[in-house]
Write a structure and sequence with these properties.
Organism: Micrurus lemniscatus lemniscatus
CATH class of the largest domain: Alpha Beta
Shape: elongated
Structural class: alpha+beta
Keywords: Metal-binding, Nucleus, Zinc, Zinc-finger
Subcellular location: Nucleus
Strand content: 5-15%
CATH architecture of the largest domain: 2-Layer Sandwich
Distance between the termini: 24 Å
InterPro entries: PARP1-like_PADR1_N (IPR049296), Znf_PARP (IPR001510), Znf_PARP_sf (IPR036957)
Number of helices: 8
GO cellular component, one term: nucleus
Order of helices and strands: HHEEEHEHHHHH
Length: about 240
């Protein structure tokens, strides 16, 4: 096809997607605005909390994963001296604490999220660039519970959360705190925009749902053709 951009979508269940990818913004998702409003909100809250709920109900995978752990970050003692810090490009000595920022390689997306290791100090100095938000804290990093007590304290000092008010019991990030800190006028403006977007999205989906109830798949195809719209392949895509 002349419209093919060389990119092939890899579809996942909702819960499986967050195990392979970490997003910093819902704007990175193509088609986000076309979802139902409640699903948009669900994704926004998940991203704002750093995917803290992604491990819910999944057991203690890897031994150091808690329910409020961040999917995109991990901490451990280096198993050898073969890993190289992505920050300073120096070797990470065996037994030294190393922090991983998990990323998907553009050239090999099928591999999922790959560990990019950093010295603790190198990671700490780059935390913003690496997507470790101010509201995140060291105890949310996967593998934190497996570290020695003194090393846990070191991580907490190097990677503190900015405000304690942003945490719930157990160090979990409250995704609503970010919006609470905004100036009143900005919050009112955003609230009006949100309401307009919500009303628009719900109106569109109400129309879609009514059409689906009242029309057959063939009727919907005829409507698209009559309005000079492209007819997508597959019955599910039409309805």
């Amino acid at each position: 096809s002349p419209m093919f951009d060389g990119k092939v979508p890899h579809w996942h269940h909702y819960s499986c997607f967050w195990k392979r990818v970490q997003l910093l913004s819902h704007a990175d998702l193509d088609g986000f605005s076309e979802l139902r409003w409640e699903d948009q909100e669900k994704i926004k809250k998940h991203i704002e909390s750093g995917g803290a709920a992604a491990g819910k109900g999944g057991g203690q995978e890897g031994g150091g994963k808690r329910e409020n752990s961040l999917n995109g970050f991990a901490a451990e003692y280096a198993k050898s001296n073969r890993s190289t810090c992505k920050g300073c490009e120096q070797k990470i000595e065996k037994g030294q604490i190393r922090i991983s920022k998990k990323m998907v390689l553009a050239e090999k997306p099928q591999l999922g999220m790959i560990d990019n290791w950093y010295h603790l100090a190198c990671f700490s100095s780059r935390r913003t660039d690496l997507g470790f938000l101010p509201t995140f804290n060291a105890s949310q990093i996967q593998g934190f519970e497996l570290l020695k007590a003194e090393d846990k304290e070191t991580l907490k000092k190097q990677l503190p959360s900015v405000k304690n008010e942003g945490k719930r019991k157990g160090g979990e990030v409250d995704a609503n705190v970010i919006s609470k800190k905004r100036p009143k006028k900005e919050k009112e403006k955003l609230s009006k925009q949100e309401k307009l977007l919500k009303d628009q999205t719900e109106l569109i989906w109400n129309i879609k749902d009514e059409l689906k109830r009242a029309c057959s798949t063939n009727d919907l195809k005829e409507l698209l053709i009559a309005n000079k719209q492209e007819v997508p392949s597959g019955e599910a895509a039409v309805s």
